[in-house]
């Protein structure tokens, strides 16, 4: 498709550029302009930076780009006898997931790379991954049935690239899986061997081989659905450095950036109450956390927390900051209550379109090791589906009353949760309220998976008194202990053992919580 030359700048002595000559072909000028305009919009330190572009009278186009000095991944792979440590391959995959996420969430139109392979990946002098050659990349257009041209590299390209179907982000994820298979199998191609990766390399972790198997599904619906989902799955194999939580008396370790999505099977079931309860239990356990209210929800959290009285004076709503004209990613003041950070939506609601990319921007803005994300009943919203694909845990609150779990909407949600479980996601059901003994068996049989635990029945009068005083009823020591005991089976599932308290009784919140040191 093109020739690439190393050129020396005649004005800036010693400066070198990569000059890509795109040969004139049918409709070649349009393809050249599309690639030039696409590269001009990209601003990422690990993507090629376009300096200039021009055409000749004969119709040949030239792109002038940064010269990246370093080997390709294919060069390194060949020079090591095609034997890379799988930990090194996962580190490369982490960087590629970040790059693909940037491209796939690019606005106004996602960019599909379509040619991910070892020879298109370079390493700079700092060992950073750099993607090169956007010659077959395209902007994703919603509603389009197929690509204009079927292009890609055999062995790495997704099936839909050669079938006249439209490619999307999942096509790049297939290529990522094919490349991981190639690197982890000593240079073999999945489409030729037709063998599971675990048979070729039995020493690989099961979580790694299952992720590759998921990425290589022929049907895009059965693959991982986002680059962040892939990264979250791989993180369980090669976790990022642990954060150390320090207080006056102890030090414990927690995983970095743990995302827990929580919602209700139907409206009014108590997902927000459950989310607040979990946040305050972690606060009492000296574990920093945050509770985010999904911007597409009906506003609830701000009022429950008496925001007019309790929110900091300079507080700005994070959802509005992210989608504002200036695209600010740092709120001026966070709303902290002990070790919990509240991230509510504005009491008037959020009226702009909330995109999946906005959720990830908000996630990166919150510097807490554990983040609860309350989605209410909006399980079918695209941004919530994207979060669930990337979540470490999914918690579903259900009602113990008969009939509600058999509604058509409830059954549709159960099907969605089962699809997440089939992808390896951990889904936990929590009942709101106890089930009478004589009906417990019948009710258990009416739900696909028995609840792991049940919220205790608290006196409504006590809850209402706390609400009118602008207090968290969960911060009352006797209530906190009761909720903690009831939710302990769930806590054992979603928290590392090292962070669980040795005794069953919860201590009343000490006054020095507000002065606790930030985790390192």
What does this entry show, briefly?
This protein has 520 residues and is an alpha/beta fold. It has helices spanning 28-41, 73-79, 86-104, 169-184, 190-193, 197-200, 206-215, 227-235, 271-284, 301-304, 307-310, 318-322, 356-365, 382-390, 408-422, 440-445, 460-468, 477-494, and strands spanning 2-8, 16-22, 50-55, 61-66, 111-112, 121-123, 129-131, 138-139, 243-246, 251-254, 258-264, 289-293, 335-337, 340-343, 370-376, 393-399, 426-432, 453-455.
Q: What does this protein structure show overall?
A:
This is non-specific serine/threonine protein kinase. This protein is of the alpha/beta class and 520 residues long. It folds into 3 domains: 2-66, 2-Layer Sandwich (Phosphorylase Kinase, domain 1), CATH 3.30.200.20; 73-235, Transferase(Phosphotransferase), domain 1; 257-503, P-loop containing nucleotide triphosphate hydrolases (Rossmann fold), CATH 3.40.50. It has 18 helices and 18 strands. It has helices spanning 28-41, 73-79, 86-104, 169-184, 190-193, 197-200, 206-215, 227-235, 271-284, 301-304, 307-310, 318-322, 356-365, 382-390, 408-422, 440-445, 460-468, 477-494, and strands spanning 2-8, 16-22, 50-55, 61-66, 111-112, 121-123, 129-131, 138-139, 243-246, 251-254, 258-264, 289-293, 335-337, 340-343, 370-376, 393-399, 426-432, 453-455. The strands form 5 sheets. It has an 8-stranded mixed sheet with strand order 13-14-12-15-11-16-17-18, with helices on both faces. A hairpin with a 5-residue loop joins strand 6 and strand 7. Helix 8 (227-235) runs parallel beside helix 14 (382-390). The model is unreliable at 140-150, 240-256, 325-331 and 503-520 (pLDDT under 50).
């Amino acid at each position: 498709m093109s020739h690439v030359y190393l050129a020396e700048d005649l004005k800036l002595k010693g400066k070198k550029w990569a000059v890509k000559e795109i040969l004139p072909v049918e409709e070649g000028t349009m393809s050249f302009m599309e690639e030039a305009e696409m590269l001009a919009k990209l601003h990422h330190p690990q993507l090629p930076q376009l300096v200039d572009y021009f055409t000749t009278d004969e119709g040949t186009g030239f792109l002038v780009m940064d010269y990246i000095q370093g080997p390709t991944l294919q060069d390194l792979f060949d020079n090591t006898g095609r034997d890379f440590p799988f930990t090194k391959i996962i580190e490369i995959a982490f960087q590629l997931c970040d790059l693909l996420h940037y491209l796939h969430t690019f606005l106004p139109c996602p960019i599909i790379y379509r040619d991910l392979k070892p020879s298109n990946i370079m390493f700079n002098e700092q060992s950073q991954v750099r993607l090169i050659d956007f010659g077959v990349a395209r902007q994703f257009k919603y509603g389009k049935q197929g690509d204009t041209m079927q292009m890609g590299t055999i062995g790495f390209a997704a099936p839909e690239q050669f079938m006249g179907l439209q490619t999307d982000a999942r096509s790049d994820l297939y290529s990522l899986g094919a490349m991981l298979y190639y690197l982890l199998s000593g240079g073999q191609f999945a489409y030729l061997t037709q063998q599971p990766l675990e048979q070729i390399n039995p020493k690989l972790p099961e979580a790694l081989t299952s992720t590759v198997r998921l990425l290589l599904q022929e049907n895009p619906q059965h693959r991982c659905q986002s680059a962040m989902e892939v990264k979250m799955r791989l993180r369980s194999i090669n976790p990022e450095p642990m954060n150390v939580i320090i207080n006056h008396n102890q030090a414990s370790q927690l995983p970095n950036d743990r995302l827990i999505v929580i919602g209700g099977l139907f409206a009014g079931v108590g997902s927000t109450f459950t989310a607040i309860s979990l946040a305050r239990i972690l606060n009492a356990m000296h574990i920093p956390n945050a509770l985010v209210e999904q911007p597409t929800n009906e506003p609830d959290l701000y009022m429950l927390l008496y925001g007019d009285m309790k929110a900091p004076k300079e507080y700005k709503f994070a959802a509005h900051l992210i989608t504002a004209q200036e695209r600010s990613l740092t709120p001026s003041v966070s709303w902290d209550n002990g070790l919990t950070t509240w991230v509510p939506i504005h009491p008037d609601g959020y009226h702009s379109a909330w995109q999946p990319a906005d959720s990830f921007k908000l996630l990166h803005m919150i510097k807490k090791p554990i983040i609860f994300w309350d989605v209410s009943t909006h399980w079918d919203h695209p941004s919530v589906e994207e979060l669930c694909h990337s979540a470490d845990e999914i918690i579903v609150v259900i009602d113990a009353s008969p009939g509600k779990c058999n509604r058509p909407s409830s059954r549709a949600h159960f099907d969605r949760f089962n699809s997440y479980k089939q992808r390896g996601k951990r889904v936990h059901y929590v009942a709101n309220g106890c089930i009478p003994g004589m009906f417990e068996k019948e009710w258990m049989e009416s739900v696909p998976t028995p609840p792991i635990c049940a919220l205790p029945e608290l006196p409504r009068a006590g809850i209402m008194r706390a609400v009118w005083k602008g207090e968290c009823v969960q911060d009352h020591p006797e209530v906190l202990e009761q909720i903690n005991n009831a939710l302990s089976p769930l806590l054992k599932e979603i928290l590392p053992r090292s962070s669980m308290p040795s005794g069953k009784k919860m201590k009343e919140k000490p006054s020095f919580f507000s002065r606790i040191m930030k985790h390192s």
